Amino acid sequence: MKKSYLLIFILQINLLMANTNYKGCLLFLDDFKNTSDLDLALSYSPNILLRSWYRWGEPSSQKSYQKRKKNVTKLLLRGIKLGGGTSLSIVNQLDMQSPSFNLSWLTINLEGKVIKKKNYSYATISSPGFRTYLIEKLIQQVKLGVSELHLGETAGKINFDNWTLAYFSDWIFKKYPNKSKLWWYQQFGNLGLKLISSKKISRNDIRTLKKLQKNRLFLEWGIVNNWKGINKNKEKSFLFYLYHRNLNLFIMELRHQLKLNKLSASIDVWGFADWILDLENKPDAVITTPPDGRWGFNWDKDISFDLKKNKKRIKSILKKEIEKLSPTQVVLMIDHSKPFYEFAKLPDKRQVKVLNYFSNISNELSINFVVRTYTHKKSQLGDFTKNWLRKTCEIKKNEIN
User: Fold this and answer.
1) Nearest to 213 by CA among 201, 205, 224
2) Are 221 and 124 in contact (CB under 8 A)?
3) Adjacent-strand bridge partners of 213
4) Which residues contact 266 (CB under 8 A, 6 or more apart)?
5) 147 shares its domain with 280
6) pLDDT value of position 207
């Protein structure tokens, strides 16, 4: 197939299928990158490999987009769609070595130090430049055949970068528009005087606050890296509005670039959070894990956990969140890191029982259920689980035919 015709074929597939990416049999591979992954996908033949070309920082040369292109094309020719996406915060050494990456985008703490993990760092989507950088990577994926884009780590790893500080200044001044200069000084000391004078604030301004002033400031700011965007009193804080703003801008800018490039892809995000609810630029779907240990349910590791006894409460929790998100689609997936890796240790027959349980709950709630399989450790999938996956996949596919 000639290159120009192949591109047209991929674009047509994306346009036709973007709105059906959450129907039928949904499967997730850890990382669709080679012939082995292609063979695994073909053995189940789902409608889509949801978010299976996910970007955890810039891929190595062995996993480059161009090297995956051949297998992506083979997948599409077999009628199986491919989902991709990116972390909105994680970057690696390859990112930081790229001429198109600006080191000022890196997330820094109150002491001005870059926040690092063993193999990666974080960047801030408060930065317009970093949002543009990530969107360019997503556009590359769609051009090569991806029709679904998953945005993960949607709260980002926000700390005290200059863009976030500038937005905080604007946000808090709008929150208290009629307060006097004296009030600002009493509340936040010299930082308060900068805020009322519309002067640029710095990390040092926050570090040098007196204890009482700092406590007041963080009641406004919120708990750093708290997913809900709340403060210690469990009230909505600046971070709640920042997360909302950043994700809203990212989705808007991504859709704009897709339109400019005459491309189409569905967009989904991870997790239930109140700051996702009222986005002006709503995602096409929200993917979430079933209620787990955070709600007191240990179905992921306790073989004696009474699934039947807890079904009513689990359904009630999910139903409430689904109603809040409506009309945005919801997809259930055993993927939050802790429950998934515990779940993977369960005996084969128990895995089938748990998968069937959540699949049935999803059907009863009129949402879909995506199954995560194992790319790197396929042997962990027992025969009963494999058979259940194939049988369920066939049923799901027939439902939309």
Assistant:
1) 205
2) no
3) none
4) 18, 19, 21, 22, 147, 148, 149, 284, 285
5) yes
6) 96
195-198, Cβ contacts within 8 angstroms, sequence gap of 24 or more: 195/169, 198/169, 198/173
Residue type (1 letter), 99:
P
Arithmetic mean of pLDDT over the chain: 90
Average pLDDT (135-141) is 96
The pLDDT tens digits of the residues spanning 219-231 come to 999 999 999 999 9
Neighbour count for residue 213 (Cβ, 10 Å): 19
What phi and psi, each to the nearest 5 degrees, are found at residue 121?
Answer: -130, -175
Q: Which amino acid is at 289?
A: T
Q: What is the pLDDT of residues 302-325, one digit of tens each?
A: 999 999 999 999 999 999 999 999
**Element at 275 (helix H, strand E):** helix 274-277
Please write the tens of the pLDDT for every residue from 159-197.
Answer: 999 999 999 999 999 999 999 999 999 999 999 999 999
Tokens representing residue 207 in the block: 């570090």
DSSP state, residue 201: P
Dihedrals phi, psi of 68, to nearest 5 degrees: -85, -15
Task: Give the pair of three-digit tokens for residue 26.
Answer: 């949904």
Which one, of 51, 105, 49, 107, lies nearest residue 74 by Cα? 49
* Residue 206, domain extent: 162-221
Query: Which range (66-70, 132-136, 239-243, 268-272) has the least confidence?
Result: 66-70
Q: Do 7 and 146 share a domain, yes or no?
A: yes
Same domain, 35 and 181: no
Ordered DSSP codes for 123-136: B-TTSHHHHHHHHH
| Cβ density class 188-201: b for 16+ within 10 Å, e for less | bbebbebbbeeeeb
Residues 77 and 16 in one domain: yes
